[in-house]
Amino acid sequence: MKLAIIFMVVGLIISVSWVAWGFLPMLAILLTTLILGAIGYVLDIMGYSLNKFTSKMLEKISN
Question: Where does the chain cross the membrane (predicted)?
Answer without folding.
Answer: 29-50
